[in-house]
Write a structure and sequence with these properties.
The structure is a homodimer of 154-residue chains.
Chain A (H helix, E strand, L loop, with lengths): L8 H15 L5 H12 L4 E2 H14 L7 H13 L3 E4 L7 E4 L7 E7 L5 E3 L8 H8 L2 E12 L4
Parallel strand pairs in A: 4-6
Antiparallel strand pairs in A: 1-3, 2-3, 4-5
Helix pairs in contact in A: 2-3, 3-4
Chain A binds a DNA duplex (25 and 25 nucleotides) through helix 2 and helix 4.
DNA sequence: TTAGCTGCAAAGTATTTGCAGTGGT
DNA sequence: ACCACTGCAAATACTTTGCAGCTAA
């Protein structure tokens, strides 16, 4: 199993247009700009962060930067259709990242209970739980394994 | 490996008093009330939720219910000393639960990306990653495995 | 007695919502 | 033309912080 293989731009836009058609939703300029910004991101981002990235892009394109409320609304939509995945790492702000190509994509983190330091881990171990979920009717699965405790310095 | 074996009340209070001594901190009435409330909880709780539970208890004891700010301060302290563990399940509010007896305690959840429905899972699979972390100097480890996707109804 | 802790109130940050106007399809 | 979507602004939710008085050790 492979980790961290994100969707390509083409795959992402195709997934979006399929969902849009299905939902009777529209491909607006802010929507497109936000997805482009998300795809360029090298790290998970917050709503605020995505808006700033879109802001930077909007100078290239002729459109204006999207409003924060619009960012939140689209983040929710992208998450719902599986384009982005919400990643809850200890902090107070919700952060997102582009979903992986594989259904069984997952992430490993370590979060220090004291200083909040986060470290990404490499090792992978696929859980047998996922197959149980699939049998129950869950779909579009993603999973995340997070460790917490105290880091060497704390 | 066993799951969901929470600390007993005695163990919890002993862990607290040890930490208090070490930190030069004090066992105050609100602190005690909050821990008692947390220990009685049958489900993970938010700051608001813990305050309400403490409120209920405070009628039995003769003390008053703690202020919300005090709840947040103690939640942070309890989390730091490993008495409680912060559990980030999709939502916007931080929730906590009483830590397990074992160091390698973990939780399995499924969170629906659309309706937010959360389901607790039973299966366990210990990750080999934890031993790597221990070698690196991390301690007081806990881990959590969370699945997300769409539930049968969505 | 001396800090740590608390309640209260105010500030700060994150996220959501109402609404009138704009723009995809 | 219809209706989803947007920007703007206000509302809401959550969490943190400052401070003066209280109290455990």
């Amino acid at each position: 199993m492979q980790c961290h293989h994100r969707l390509t731009n083409e795959e992402a836009f195709e997934r979006l247009s399929t969902a849009l058609k299905r939902d009777g939703a529209r491909l607006t300029a802010p929507r497109k700009l936000l997805l482009e910004a998300a795809l360029k991101a090298k790290k998970p981002f917050s709503a605020e962060g995505l808006m700033q990235m879109a802001e930077a892009l909007s100078e290239t394109e002729k459109s204006a930067a999207p409003d924060l409320a619009t960012v939140y609304r689209n983040l929710a939509y992208f998450n719902e259709i599986g384009l982005l995945a919400r990643v809850d790492v200890g902090g107070e702000t919700a952060i997102y990242e582009v979903s992986s190509k594989e259904q069984d994509h997952h992430h490993h983190y370590f979060v220090c209970r004291k200083c909040g330091k986060t470290e990404a881990l490499e090792a992978c171990s696929m859980s047998p739980v996922e197959s149980v979920l699939k049998k129950k009717g869950y779909h579009g699965l993603t999973h995340r394994l997070e460790f917490s405790g105290l880091c060497p310095g704390c």
